[in-house]
Amino acid sequence: MQKGGFNPDRLTPAQAAILIGLSEATLNTKRSRGGGIAYFKQGRRVFYRLADLEHYRASRTQRMGKGTGA
User: Fold this and answer.
1) How many domains does the chain have?
2) Cβ distance 48 to 13 under 8 Å?
3) How far is CA 9 from CA 4, 33, 52, 68, in A?
C-alpha cells in the first residue's frame, strides 16, 4: 500500500468525514461521547472501516412512507 493511499479497512478520520459528509470535529465529538460510527485504534491513532461508514449512513436513511407527505 502506498503512503497516503486508500485502504477501505483503515480510513483516517479525515477520510471518513469526507465519505459520510460530516466534519472531522463532529466525528471526534461523537466518538468521545460514546456514540457515532464504529472505529478502532492502533496505538493512539483512530481508524474507520468503509463497511462501518456505509452501515452508519444506511441506518440514517429516511424513507417516505404512505401518508408522510408529497
Assistant:
1) 1
2) yes
3) 14, 23, 9, 38
Task: Give the chain's mean pLDDT.
Answer: 87
In a domain, 38, yes or no: yes
Q: Are 21 and 54 in contact (CB under 8 A)?
A: no
Is residue 55 one of the residues assigned to a domain? yes
pTM (2 decimals)?
0.77
| Contact criterion met (CB below 8 Å) for 65 and 59 | no
Q: Is residue 2 part of a domain?
A: no
45 beta partners: 42
